[in-house]
Amino acid sequence: MTIRNGLTSLLRPEDSVLVLIDHQPYQLANLHSHEPQMVINNTAGLAKAAKAFGVPTILTTVVAERGGYLFSQITDVFPGQEVIDRTFINTWEDRKVVDAVKATGRKQLIIAGLWTEVCVAMPAIQALGEGWDVTVVTDASGGVSAEAHQVAIQRMVAAGANVMTWMALAAEWQRDWARMETAVKLTEVLTQHGGGSGIAYLWERQLLNTPLRSAAE
């Protein structure tokens, strides 16, 4: 397995392409590795971060007529964009999805989906075997149990996958807060989906905008 280290191993928005897989009601109904609302929040944050950095994002479902449409928290980020519906459980066997990814010209393939042990693991492992640089966003994914999710991560890491959480990925894309063209957009995403970090930022802004009182007052 190739060891992943050095500056060039870090993810870059200009080389990244994101695939969001099967964030649908059917899969969410049997999600037990995470609190469901956390996965919805994290996936929405990931989608908005990708949009902020101009990272092409492929949206896909499996048999949406029965399993439900992609969460609106995701599709609202990309209004009017086609959601590719599949019959293949393994997304990487669906030619339309693979062609859409290849058309971006990017080689850093980032995947998140439900469930980790099925709909994430299979395409990640296949794409790794085809030479793709694969990163799995673990907290925008989830499985039917904590064990299923964790074993799937171990399996993908053993196959050569990189694993990250969505805020770590966003920070890696940003890399330097002096990059103001994306810093402002990312900060807005963090205030909406970054939990305590977003609230702390809003509090900091409140404090900075509060006039200091003199000792005589």
How would you describe the overall organization of this protein?
This protein has 217 residues and is an alpha/beta fold. The chain is 47% helix and 13% strand. It has 10 helices and 6 strands, in the order E-H-H-E-H-H-E-H-E-H-E-H-E-H-H-H. A 6-stranded parallel β-sheet has the order 3-2-1-4-5-6, with helices on both faces. Strand 4, helix 6 and strand 5 form a beta-alpha-beta unit. The protein is globular, with a radius of gyration of 19 Å. The model has no long low-confidence stretch (mean pLDDT 94).
What's the SSE pattern?
A: EHHEHHEHEHEHEHHH
By DSSP, the count of extended strands is 6
Radius of gyration: 19 Å
Most strands sheet: 6 strands, parallel
Number of helices: 10
Strand order of the largest sheet: 3-2-1-4-5-6
Structural class: alpha/beta
Q: Estimate the strand proportion.
A: 5-15%
Task: Provide the helix percentage.
Answer: 40-55%
Tell me, rounded to a whole number, the average pLDDT.
Answer: 94
Tell the overall outline.
globular
